[in-house]
Design a protein that fits this description.
This protein has 254 residues and is α/β, with parallel strands linked by helices. 24% of the residues lie in helices and 18% in strands. α2 (88-101) packs antiparallel against α5 (223-231).
């Protein structure tokens, strides 16, 4: 896969007319401004007997108005209308494909897509995007168990700049691209889904896992779809409890 396209233009989709109500499985998460910072993401903090502005709001960070209790319904608000364009159709198709591909890994079938539009301070997307237990298992297999065998396979991926200078959300897309590259290298080398792996805390038995013993060449590399979503101008934030969450940067943050 050519990863060069992931270096620029992320979260900058082409905008235009799109029917946001035509898909019955499409829903929208709405912002409820944080009572402390009113959705700004920052607040005044008393420091050394003086009030200072610009501190991150620890009450709502990193969601800035999006919480577990934020309302979800089938009616888009103004932020969705401004942030979503025609490529949501492709993004949603890839998201449904991703959800189907991780079912053999133990994920619950997806039932709906929820769009979240980012506000100030919310550009960073989750590291795993797929269910955490699946993401961690992928990490253990490729970055620990097969680390020596796959060493150097992702060396050419240059998406983010070092340290704190790297622009959000590049740290996450770079991490997902590394997983994609490791998976492709494992498939090419003939590696199989292991029945026992080395990981950070010792040894984990995977003999009962439904995919144990299967060749990675047989298993669809679902990070192909994940990276494809980035290229539409949006991002896969999570797949959890039957819900796919897709992320769009707000018009104000572009």
């Amino acid at each position: 896969m050519d990863y060069a396209g992931l270096r620029t233009g992320l979260l900058e989709p082409a905008l235009g007319d799109v029917d946001l109500t035509a898909e019955p499985r499409r829903f929208f998460r709405h912002v409820v401004p944080c009572p402390r910072c009113n959705g700004s993401g920052t607040q005044r903090v008393l420091w050394d007997d003086e009030w200072e502005d610009g501190w991150s709001c620890g009450h709502c960070l990193p969601w800035t108005g999006h919480t577990k209790d934020s309302p979800i319904d089938a009616v888009p608000d103004g932020s969705h209308v401004k942030a979503l364009g025609p490529s949501i159709v492709e993004a949603e198709a890839l998201a449904w494909e991703t959800a189907a591909l991780i079912e053999p890994w133990g994920s619950r079938p997806a039932e709906r897509i929820v769009w979240r539009v980012g506000t100030t301070g919310t550009k960073k997307i989750g590291d795993h995007c797929v269910p955490v237990d699946i993401g961690l298992l992928v990490n253990d297999i490729f970055f620990i168990h097969l680390r020596e065998e796959l060493k150097g396979c992702d060396a050419g991926i240059d998406i983010s700049t070092p340290g704190y200078d790297r622009p959000a959300p590049y740290p996450d897309v770079a991490f997902q691209a590394r997983k994609h590259a490791n998976w492709a290298a494992a498939a090419a080398a003939g590696h199989r889904f292991p029945e026992r792996i080395r990981h950070a805390n010792g040894v984990k038995e995977l003999g009962d896992h439904p995919l144990a013993g299967k060749s990675f060449a047989e298993l669809p590399n679902f990070y192909t779809q994940v990276l494809g979503i980035w290229l539409t101008g949006y991002a896969l934030e999570s797949i959890k409890d039957g819900t796919i969450c897709l992320y769009a940067a707000s018009a104000a943050d572009r």
